[in-house]
């Protein structure tokens, strides 16, 4: 009886080892790319008439059957990070908020509160760094404080961002003239 149990025990141990992954390495799966079968088309089988004698009419050469060709796929339009003209007409919420802060700063400058105006304009710049009016009014605030160096830097930035607007370009040029006449206090 002991001789009949040994093969059963070995088989049971082998099965357990296989179940727990101890006996062999996991089988490698090989994936092959799926190939889509090409549609099989058969040319129509029509018997061509054979002329008995050459006729004076010109005969066209027989055309080889052609396989149907799939229409070309349309090429997608490239995505651009530059907004289209339709998108640039509508200001973003950040640009609107920046313009609101710029207006607040303008009123602070008129009230001779340059430090508050500078703080407000810095917030406006963080919302919309392309708003050239922020730089114009920063130059104004620094002129009130008597800092010609800062006024010159912000005037240059205003000139860069407002160069396409004729009205603002004139204001920036006039501001530059006032800055040039400033006496350096620092």
Give an overview of the whole structure.
With 186 residues, the chain is an all-alpha fold. The protein has a domain of 73 residues: Serine Threonine Protein Phosphatase 5, Tetratricopeptide repeat, CATH 1.25.40.10. It is 52% helix and 0% strand. The chain is built from seven helices and no strands. The longest helix has 18 residues. The termini are far apart.
Quick overview of this protein structure:
This protein has 186 residues and is mostly helical.
Give the secondary structure arrangement, pairings included.
Elements lengths: L1 H18 L65 H4 L4 H18 L3 H14 L4 H14 L2 H14 L4 H15 L6
| Name of the level-1 CATH class of the domain at 114-186 | Mainly Alpha
Strand content: under 5%
The count of helical stretches stands at 7
Helical percent range? 40-55%
Shape: elongated
Attribute tags:
186 residues; mainly alpha; Serine Threonine Protein Phosphatase 5, Tetratricopeptide repeat; elongated
